[in-house]
Amino acid sequence: MTRKGLWIINIVILLCLIGCVGMIYSLTSKPANFMLSCSSELFNHGVAGADSDHYLLVDLVSKDGLAQINYRYYDLEGNSAGTLAMTGKVNKVDTERQMFDISVTTKQEYTGEKGQGTPEHFEYLSYISGLNLNQSGMHSLSVQVLERDETKDYAVVLFQPSNTVCGCRLVH
Asked: With pLDDT > 90 as the criterion, what percentage of the chain qualifies?
């Protein structure tokens, strides 16, 4: 084989490598698009043997790197006990640990119906997110899939820093 032939083969191999690196980058750099519809019962841990007194519904939508999280609270009769609506961006997706790191940059709060007390979970999440947003302009939130059943489009998910475990429907 001549030098010119070897040179052409080397150029072709180099172009293939550059193409492969570009393809890998484009596949791994795209933000995750997903939607979770979650629910959990909230218990008053200050009272021994207490039954749940509120339900929590969490909707999480991520599209093109942006995230919207709505925490909606209801009493046992279905009356609204408050809503925390947060928006931000997805910083990192760790597919191996099934964890999403989200930076919340805006938050809106809505209290429940007149005379309706807000759950302790609402108060805590409102306090800690407000503190972080006021101090640094950002509230960090992580979402980790603990268990997943693809056949039933269901997952058990941990939300931090609220330390909330929810059952979630994976919406496609």
From this structure: 52
